[in-house]
Write a structure and sequence with these properties.
- The protein is an alpha/beta fold.
- Helix content is 39%, strand content 15%.
- The strands form four sheets. Strands 4-11-10-9-8-5-6-7 form an eight-stranded mixed β-sheet. It has a four-stranded antiparallel β-sheet with strand order 12-13-16-15, covered by helices on one side.
- α4 packs across α13 and α6 runs parallel beside α13.
- The longest helix has 25 residues.
- It is globular.
- The protein starts with 12 loop residues before the first helix and ends with a helix.
């Protein structure tokens, strides 16, 4: 007779009985085709109710550990391949989680947003309206490319803000640009050679690596991606950020843009991926036209995200495909489900269509311009003024500084980290070690506490 001890009050009795019997079957204590005690006998022997063991037997039967014979009872199923090691409780001690940086009080490279700047009250109002008035739409399955209402809202925003004329069918919505990069790889093929700017966005290089894509890291000059290195790379796909390169801040001039478009038009399999990640924040001037808008040959795939303009936690991005690639997407990849929930899509669509997004962008552009100027003024009032150069281009949410020092960048960063200050050198963004610029550092001002900055600049000046 099977006899078990039921002591854990936090686990239902039938689950405990199920676990005991299953473990005895898996470990071989109970043999194949061995008859199990009747429900009444098991219940009486273990001091539990018949319904409890009935529920345990039914769960074991549904999973194939036991089987029933009419008017005979339950028997142990034959499990030909058994686990080599008995199952054990999961232990978090065996999982190596990424280490968090400790003792960092000021992060001069962080792209986090100040939560006070997010329009929570408006977002909450639109969210309530969406639930109240769009209940039927929220329960419908979204098309692979995303809800039409959001794609139409994005189309109108791009027309008025960026001068781009697109069909909503060309727009594909996805949960973050990383997901969209994966779609592009599947769309264009795994056999293509990609290239990206060096220095550049390290996560992008890791994504291509995970897809086993051949990706070259190409040198830049004062105009952006070098045409010479592009031609020498034999690349098929150029992934670039012409309007505000990260991290150098370079804005590609018109002559280089047309050179790259001409390069793409020289072969049918060549395309440009234009990452326009923070185009909304060109501080004092009109936004620069996108490559997509001046491309007459359908060679540019445009990508943008709401992570910069609203919040990094809003994982909504989109890409705009040339017509030929859009048709190919619907033919080959439209079996994918859209990775953004209808609720978020309808809420964002209303936020854009009702004019709140434009107001938010205008407000944030003014806010960031003031933040930038405050930071520069504080630098000019500090001992750091005579020891650095500020490299500005009036775009985005960061700029570079060049420090005049005899110390290695690594030494400066380590000494500052010991004081709770994180400063990231430009060389950290190089994807290959060929031509690394030293003494350049990135300053991101999107979420800095300006009251703390004078003390921070004093510490940096003392160290260098």
């Amino acid at each position: 007779m099977l006899t078990y001890t039921f002591k854990d009050n936090s686990i239902p009795l039938y689950i405990q009985a199920y676990n005991y019997i299953k473990n005895d079957i898996v470990s071989g204590i109970l043999s194949p085709n061995e008859k199990l005690p009747s429900k009444r006998a098991f219940a009486e022997n273990n001091g539990i109710s018949i319904i409890t063991i009935q529920n345990a037997y039914e769960q074991l039967s549904s999973e194939g550990y036991i089987y029933a014979k009419a008017r005979s009872g339950y028997y142990v199923s034959e499990i030909k391949t058994r686990p080599l090691i008995p199952q054990a409780a999961i232990s978090t001690e065996k999982i190596c989680l990424p280490k968090k940086e400790e003792n960092i009080d000021i992060d001069l490279s962080s792209n986090k947003m100040d939560p006070d700047n997010f329009p929570f009250s408006i977002w909450a109002k639109i969210s309530r309206d969406t639930i109240s008035n769009k209940s039927r739409e929220l329960m419908e399955i979204s098309p692979s490319s995303g809800c039409l209402v959001l794609r139409e809202a994005i189309k109108e925003h791009l027309r008025s803000f960026r001068g781009m004329l697109v069909d909503p069918a060309q727009i594909i919505i996805g949960a973050g640009t990383e997901y969209l990069y994966g779609l592009i790889i599947q769309l264009l093929g795994y056999d293509k050679t990609y290239c990206t700017e060096n220095p550049g966005y390290k996560k992008l290089a890791k994504i291509y690596e995970q897809y086993n894509i051949n990706c070259n890291f190409l040198d830049m000059d004062e105009k952006g991606l070098s045409i010479k290195s592009l031609n020498e790379s034999k690349a098929d796909i150029a992934h670039i950020s012409p309007n505000h390169h990260f991290p150098t801040g370079i804005t590609m001039p018109a002559d280089r843009r047309y050179e790259i478009l001409a390069w793409a038009n020289e072969a049918s399999n060549r395309y440009i991926i234009e990452d326009d990640y923070d185009s909304e924040f060109r501080i004092n001037k009109k936004p620069i036209p996108t490559l997509f808008s001046i491309d007459a040959c359908q060679k540019v795939i445009y990508i943008n995200t709401f992570s910069k303009s609203l919040s990094p936690t809003i994982r909504i991005s989109y890409m705009i495909l040339p017509v030929e690639l859009a048709n190919l997407y619907y033919k080959r990849l439209s079996f994918y489900s859209c990775t953004v929930s209808n609720f978020e899509q309808y809420t964002l669509a209303s936020f854009i269509k009702e004019g709140y997004f434009e107001k938010h962008i205008n407000r944030m552009r003014l806010y960031y311009a003031r933040q930038r100027q405050k930071l520069i003024n504080l630098i000019n009032l500090s001992p750091l003024k005579e020891k650095i150069d500020i490299l500005e281009n009036e775009s985005g949410l960061h700029f570079l500084i060049r420090i005049h020092t005899r110390y290695k960048d690594k030494v400066i960063c380590e000494r500052l980290a010991a004081l709770g200050i994180k400063l990231v050198p430009l060389y950290d963004y190089y994807l290959s070690s060929k031509k690394v610029e030293e003494h350049y550092f990135l300053i991101n001002y999107s979420n800095l506490d300006m009251e703390k900055m004078p003390a921070v600049f004093d510490k940096i000046a003392a160290i260098i």
